[in-house]
Amino acid sequence: MHPDTPWWKTAVAYQIYPRSFADSNADGVGDLEGIRRHLDYLAWLGVDALWISPFYRSPMADFGYDVSDYCDVDPLFGTLDDFDRLVADAHGRGMKVIVDWVPNHTSDQHAWFRESRATRDNAKRDWYIWRDAKPGGSPPNNWISSFTFEPAWTLDDRTGQMYLHCFLEEQPDLNWQNPEVVAAMHDTLRFWLDRGVDGFRMDVIHLIGKDPTLADDPADLAALSHVPLNNRPETHELLRGLRTLLDSYNADRVAVGEVYLLDTKLVAEHYGHGDELHLNFNFPPLYTAWDAAKWRKQIERAARELDPIDAWPTWVLSNHDNARHRTRYGGSEARARAAALLLLTLRGTPFLYAGEELGLEDADVPPGRTVDPGGRDGCRAPIPWTADAPHGWEGAEPWLPWSPCSGERSVESLLADESSILHLYRRLISARKESPALLTGGIELLDAPRGVLAFSRRDVATADLRTVLVNFADETIDLEGFGSCEVVVSTAPGGEGARFTGTVSGASGVLLRG
Ligand code: NOJ
Description:
This protein is of the alpha/beta class and 514 residues long. The protein contains 15 helices and 20 strands. The structure holds 1-deoxynojirimycin.
């Protein structure tokens, strides 16, 4: 591996949704100190970087993605001192810390918006996007907001104009065409860079550049919400500005864009020519069914669209916005195990979502306990730490109900069972770390029988070679041609360290040396 390879190309990243990870003060909501207390577990697992979803001051209309102060910790999650301790202790274990940055919108309780909405002629009026309603009172354009699927405009009686919000009305969109907004938001990045963070996950970053004419979305697509439709050249100019700022610190800080454009070709454009974002999420694979042929197409597409030099891929199966992949793939543990092999052996940086290493499924959240306006409560259930209830969440009941089998799938139970999915994740991460081919090598898709996805990873400099066989079908499939290879990791029981038998049982996979 080249000595100049940046850490974020070889890292395994791990997303923590702080409300749901671990609670240190018995109020039923996870916090920063809770995360710090479990760093040894994360180091044992082998993850290299933590991405922590928002913990800033917020009225929590969107559970932290509505920020009212970018430069402080919400008391629910702790204090700036807690954050500093968490970063120091993560760094002490060799782990990087990536924080979430929410640039497209603030909370309606942010001081900037309070000022902006107060009068038509105040200094911050143009920091947000205000327009007159059309004659007759309809909104300035046909944009639809996410979650509510209502018009993305709300009339503010105080000044008689409408403001734009691509999400909830409590999340007004900032006007990034105003250089004062750009400067103020750059300052919020500096605040966290100066505190030692290693990078940012940038929330819906493709949204910050907007059509200055605010033209209607195509009528046949508008109902989707404006969010996946906003693909603008203005964004790229702004991304270059963000990159320059990050690079002025040192080349080690990373920006990971949440580009919610559901087309890999468009995602690829957000890398620029190595002068925009270092990494971008590519969501089409996350929305791909458990199907070998469909996955093959996604891998081919990523290889085709992402520039081999400037655009390092990322892979993600679960996050706080979507049903967990075990749930989406039908609840089978065997599939969840095979999916782990896939995620951790593809060419690119994998992002795990806390709890997937436990094989968690979504919680069934009864109507009386739903809290999220976007219907995403199920994937945000608390992490079970101990086998016995309340699973390490002493005190107040957690803010969301438990996911199924939380005792059996707790960290405590799975740590005690070497055949568990948790130990499988650890073995895969460790197998990845010891193989230059898996870390930075090329990928080649191989011919395989129907139902099987096969690819090799090769590092030319060291001649390191690995082969990955994933059987998406539920029945056993015999494969020819890999008989002399050693099984490094098998997602089904047995066989590791031995020669490959040529048989892959249903919904399982193997990582082979050679
Ligand atoms: C994407 C985030 O992942 C999601 O949780 C949030 O609701 C929206 N952006 C709005 O910030």
